[in-house]
Amino acid sequence: MAIFVVRLSREMQEISRVEMMGKFAGAVGNYNAHLVAYPTINWPQIAEEFVTSLGLTFNPYATQRDLTDSTILRNMGGGLGHSLLAYKNALQGIGKLQVNKARLKEDLNQAWEVLAEPIQTVIRRYNVPKPCEGANQGKGGY
């Protein structure tokens, strides 16, 4: 389980470094339609307040029609959203796991070889010569 914690933690750190940007202007990056409908409202200020209230960095000039926008950047939110749901579901599932000690003991009695590495580690700690050969002498180990 620890490997999954490490991997997910690393990915979460990477994601947290991504600056998530947002805009509130029209499709071509301006407030023309907004101003026609409500000419007395300070749309750039309202847009910035709204976007930053969502925890995003305000980008006043972003537009989907700008050919310099990357398809990857435009679709990053969907991927991150699905990842977040997957992480939450994985954690929920992990939280439901229960250790069946009797079954583990039974499995261990049928497969002593899984203890080879920890046995070798202890043997090395005590400087026993040829630890690999000693730990692999058959079921039951050393």
From TrEMBL:
Its BP terms in the Gene Ontology are: IMP biosynthetic process
InterPro entries linked: L-Aspartase-like, PurB_bact, PurB_C
Q: Which UniProt keywords are given for this protein, alphabetically ordered?
A: Lyase
State the Gene Ontology terms under molecular function. N6-(1,2-dicarboxyethyl)AMP AMP-lyase (fumarate-forming) activity
Pfam family membership, one: ASL_C
Instruction: Identify the pathway.
Output: Purine metabolism; AMP biosynthesis via de novo pathway; AMP from IMP: step 2/2; Purine metabolism; IMP biosynthesis via de novo pathway; 5-amino-1-(5-phospho-D-ribosyl)imidazole-4-carboxamide from 5-amino-1-(5-phospho-D-ribosyl)imidazole-4-carboxylate: step 2/2
**Any idea where the Adenylosuccinate lyase PurB C-terminal domain is?**
63-133
Q: What is this protein called?
A: Adenylosuccinate lyase
> What species was this sequence derived from?
Hibiscus syriacus (Rose of Sharon)
